[in-house]
Every structure is written in structure tokens, then in C-alpha cells.
């Protein structure tokens, strides 16, 4: 229901595109002119300039700042977690083999020799939960960082045009800039086709579920 509501809202908000744009005859040149193109109607250009500025701020600048800030914060938390775990392993008392066993599984060391079976059930569960949360956080951090990287070229061109147009309302993008934007858009669109590979690369749980599903499908096919 939520997704349907968001889709309906987006369709309504951006439905103005069917009104402000259409097939426009472009002035010809000496060789016979250009064919008609789908462009904004000239009478709507002032209003669309305002809407484009609002859209750039709300869908580009603010989300980019929020995503980058949150990614940096999450990365710092992950680094702090591993620093704390390294400090705990350095302070652990016991044989080197025991310390490595405890730390490798994310179990807290409290100054006494410890094994898997000697940990309280609650402490063991908390350790596993903390380790699993860090794994998921690292995977999502990786995916969101790739998302930012692939969006950066397109966003940089769009932000450049936005700032220059604010300083010079008569600014007209050069052909080189338009071609660069098209290539940047290709990189941007790549993000929507590689999520499966990103989750397969960074998510151990995703790979395990995928293998189980594949094995289940193979068993079902062999039973036919």
C-alpha cells in the first residue's frame, strides 16, 4: 500500500510534463532544417526554470548531502567497532589460541580465559547479534557507496549547470557538456542493473540464501 501511494504521488506530481512539453518545430538551417523535436514549450520556460531549481534542491542537493553524511557516520562507527574489538583482543588474558578463537567469533573478552561453551547464553547471543549487525551494515555501506560513486558524474554535471544558470540566466549548455551528460547518464543507469552483483559480492547471507534456493530448485527439477 505504501509503495502504491508513493507511485501514485509521483505520477501526480510529475504529470505536468505532459502539458509543458511537446513536439516543437525547430528553426531550420541552410541545409533544410532540423526535424521536429520533443521540447519544452517556450511559454512555460520561466515556470519550468523555477520548478527545475526546486527539483534540483529537493531531489539532488539535499539527498546527496544526507546520504554522504550518513555514510561517513556509519563508516566511522564501523571503524570504531573494529578498534574496540582489537583493543579487547589485546587485553584478553589466556593462551594466544584461545584469544584468537574468541575474537574471531566476535565474542567479548573480559580478562579471563574464555571458550565458546563458557560464555553466558545472553552474552553469546549479544555477540552474535552485534557481529551480524556489523556484517549487514558493511554490506549496506558498500552498496550505498557504489550508488554515490555511480551517481556522482551525472549529479556533478547537473549541479554545474544549476549553479552556472543561477549566475548567468542566459547560459546555454555547450554540445560537449550535453554529450558529457549523456555519458554520465549511462553510468547513472548502470546502478540499477548491478545491485544483484553487489549483494552477491558483499552479502554472505545473500549468497547462502541464493545457494539454498538454487539447490532447492535443482531438487525440485530432479523429482519431476
Q: Output the helix-strand order.
A: HHEEHHHHHH
Q: Tell me the overall shape.
A: extended
Number of strands: 2
Fraction of helical residues: over 70%
Counting structural domains, the number is 2
Structural class call reads mainly alpha
**Gyration radius, in Å:** 27 Å
Average residue-wise pLDDT: 77
- Separation of the first and last Cα atoms: 38 Å
Helical run tally: 8
Q: Per DSSP, what share of the residues sits in E-state strands of 2 or more residues?
A: under 5%
Largest sheet: 2 strands, antiparallel
| Unreliable stretches covering 5 or more consecutive residues | 97-107, 109-119
Polypeptide structure, described:
By secondary structure, the protein is mainly alpha-helical. The protein folds into two domains: 1-40, no CATH class; 46-193. The protein contains eight helices and two strands. It has a two-stranded antiparallel sheet with strand order 1-2. α5 runs antiparallel to α7 (195-202). The two termini are 38 Å apart. The chain crosses the membrane at residues 60-79, 139-166, 186-206. It is found in: Membrane. Residues 1-199 form the G-protein coupled receptors family 1 profile domain. InterPro entries: GPCR-Ligand_Int (IPR052954), GPCR_Rhodpsn_7TM (IPR017452).
Summarize the structure.
The protein has 224 residues and is mainly α. The chain has eight helices and two strands.
Chart the SSEs and their pairings.
Blueprint lengths: L1 H12 L3 H4 E4 L12 E4 L4 H47 L4 H9 L16 H47 L7 H16 L4 H8 L1 H20 L1
Main location: membrane
InterPro entries: GPCR-Ligand_Int (IPR052954), GPCR_Rhodpsn_7TM (IPR017452)
Keywords: Membrane, Transmembrane, Transmembrane helix
